[in-house]
Amino acid sequence: MTYKVTCHCGAIELAVDFPDGLSGLKRCNCSICRRKGAIMAYTAGENVTLVKGEDVLSTYSFHTHAAQHHFCSVCGIYTHHRPRFDPSKVGINTGCIEGITPGDVAEYELMDGANHPMDAKS
Question: Whole-prediction pTM value?
Answer without folding.
Answer: 0.84
